[in-house]
Amino acid sequence: MTLLKGAHLHDPQVAIDDVADIRIDGERIVEVGEDLVACDGEESIDCTGCDLVPGLVDMHVHFRDPGYEYKETIETGCRAATKGGFTDVATMPNTDPVCDTGTGVRYQIDRSKAAGLARVHPIGALTRGEKGEALAEIGDMVMEGAAAFSDDGHGVQSAGMMRCCMDYVSQFDRVAIAHCEDESITAGGLVNEGTCSTRLGMFGWPAAGEELEVSRDIDLVRLTGCALHVAHISTERSLDLVRSAKAEGLPVTCEVTPLHLFLTEDDITDTYDTNLKVNPPLRTPHDAAALREGVCDGSIDCIVTDHAPHAAHEKDCEFEIASFGSIGLETSLGLMLTNLVLPGKLSWDQLVSLMCVSPRRLLRMQPVTLAVGSSADLTVIDPSIGYVVSDGLFESRSHNSAFLGTHLTGAARDVFVAGKRTLMDGVVA
Amino acid sequence: MLSVRNLIDTTSLTADDITQILDTAQSFAEVNSRAIKKVPALRGRTIVNLFLEPSTRTRSSFELAEKRLSADSLNMSGSTSSVVKGESLADTIQTIAAMNVDMFVCRAKFAGTPHLITENTDARVINAGDGKHQHPTQALLDLYTIRENFGHLDGLKVAIVGDLLHSRVVGSLAPALRTMGAEVTLVGPPTFQVMDPAWFGCEQTADFDSVIPDVDVIYMLRVQLERMEGAAIPSRREYNRLFGLDTVRASHMKEGAIVCHPGPMNRGMEIMPEVADAPYAKILDQVSAGVAVRMAAMYLLLGGEDNDLA
Ligand SMILES: [Zn+2]
User: Fold this and answer.
1) Which residues pair with B205 in a beta bridge?
2) Of these four, A299, A352, B7, B216, which has the most CB atoms within 10 Å of its CB?
3) Which among A194, A271, A272 has the least Cβ separation from residue B195?
4) B190 secondary structure, DSSP code
5) Phi and psi at residue B96, in whole multiples of 5°?
6) Could you give the C-alpha distances from B224 to A239, B227, B263, B264, in angstroms and in order?
7) What percent of chain A lies above the pLDDT cut of 90?
8) pLDDT digits 0-9 by tens, A276-323
9) Which one of B116, B194, B199 has the shortest CB-CB distance to A272?
10) Is A312 an interface residue toward B (CB < 8 Å)?
11) What letter would DSSP give residue A401?
């Protein structure tokens, strides 16, 4: 048994917003209340000054395993997730081979169980090999435990194929996750089309390349009834499209990354910092402000990292040939706390919705609450700790963070996964 | 002395920098007109010409400039360097830099490569063209040619015409002209226009004919033929009809106006032969200016007054 004493609990699902103690026995929460007294032999952890929330979930990460283990493995990815305060992550299928069969799903689940840290929920491919040509074995993957389906890394280029995917997925209780990118428009694009592409002399990836597919896929929701989750939205117009789909009552949700909330195309200077080369690209300050507003007004459902590890040699090269992506698991919570929660722009309850409740709902996971009987999946946050994002922070095998050098306040201190302490005073077990 | 350590882009050059380079180029132009075209200004200095993308013209111009300054030079091209053998550019630069060279002149396929080189060596770096980004010495030789012709740059009106989107000339020439007080209009079909002309401080239009009578300089860009029959342009014929500079269009030019082109020209495409060979076309003057301007840039970056300019 373990007793967590004196933390401020936040959980809008059970309307808790108060300092209280939590007792864990085995995998579950067995008692929540004030001034609980430690029993004989019970470990008591002082959480005074800390905040305590249901375990964080990141529903969009890339663990590169199998195929690119030199960038990240399931084990190192789970260490990074744990360090960042997460109990659960969902992995995108663009590995090698692509996760498009039940076997691929099973492999990841087995590997993550062996690591014994954060749980991994594989997202299966919509189409075989993510080629956009033929349906993947979606049913087989559902039976092996796939949490959702996506061809992330690519938009499904043909509207007919996407319709087919969504029709097929709709027979299962699963969400189709769309990476919205019309490659006939974005081909060769490296940065936001506009001032940034002009200034740096590179091909642009225009906002319309994303918005056209967001719009198309929302139309396909009307046709197929399939639940659609729009991945990593990056523009104000994409957000507005999702807003009006929601207003219409369609089963449409969306997510945003801290990259697109807190960085803009203006951060890419003449130094051509390749860690800022991400897909979709960093947009205008206007877009970022609109996305932050969407987070605060509830139009955006989840915060995800799109954690995309790349080895040093894939980033220490010319911007035009550098790989797309930034890691994010270890900085996501700190960025949200520093920029939105601690300045009072976002409530703790909203943060819990964005990083705990909504992703679990979308991944069809059991809800986790801070109530008696719930699985003890918990994240204890120290909101006062200050640090600078640097190489020393990372458990990830790759260090390609777009936020290197950024000062942050607030980080996960302890994490419990089904009662097991996976992060202890900021150190991964 | 220049305010910059390296010559990567024209946007970091001040008007004083540009004037200093053009004035110095003027004295080197005099050297180039002598029977013995060589000064000891950079004797004992080593310059590496790293051409990761082939360019006979730019490379010849740099090599000649180096020889006339008495520098020792080493030529490396994309096909002979280890860059193509899987070694990273950073490794290659560090390896060459370890041999104590003084300067890299780099031509690259990708925007930003010259900047990456500066991060891997203490040697000076000149950008000899990086992707669609910049080609600063081209811009400077253009400014030199224009200034020779008009005696000044401020107040001039310049039209840059053609494939603006894929051109590194626009990226470096337009800002440099603005710095020197000239007005620039970009002209091209919408499929070839830049996304944010305001960033260059320019107007942009597709109406060539309305611009011609108004400008002092018509700067015709080379159209890459491989981009011709693709999606961006219906045909060579139509491009020539809408954006080609022929004698009819040239007859509407202002009194004293000149025509420039960075070369190599597609005669009959963006420019008709009669225009290219007319006295108001300064295309060969640009080529001659190239050697003098590159001598000036190398000389000033490698110590300037500390060396003796005989
Ligand atoms: Zn994606």
Assistant:
1) B187
2) B7
3) A194
4) G
5) -65, -40
6) 39, 6, 11, 10
7) 99
8) 999 999 999 999 999 999 999 999 999 999 999 999 999 989 999 999
9) B116
10) no
11) B
Catalytic residue among A151, A306, A377, A414: A306
* Residue A384: CB atoms within 10 Å: 11
| Cβ-contact B213, B185 below 8 angstroms | no
CB contact under 8 A, B112 and A320: yes
Amino acid in the structure at residue A207: A
Distance, in Å, from the CA atom of A77 to the CA atom of A99, rounded to the nearest integer, reads: 17
Q: Give CA angle at B281 (B31, B163), nearest 5°.
A: 110
Q: B157-171, pLDDT tens digit by residue?
A: 999 999 999 999 999
d(CA B281, CA B177): 19
CA–CA distance from A378 to each of A84, A112, A360, A418, B184 (Å)?
13, 18, 14, 8, 61
* The pair of three-digit structure tokens given for residue A82, joined into one six-digit string: 């744990």
> What is the length of chain B?
310
Cα separation, A387 vs A392, in Å, equals 11
pTM of the model: 0.91
B242 in contact with A at a CB cutoff of 8 Å? Answer: no
Name the token pair of B97: 């830099």
Residue that has been written with the tokens 């630069």 in this structure: B93
The pair of structure tokens assigned to A291 is: 């996305």
Tell me, yes or no, if B78 comes closer than 8 A to chain A by beta carbon: no
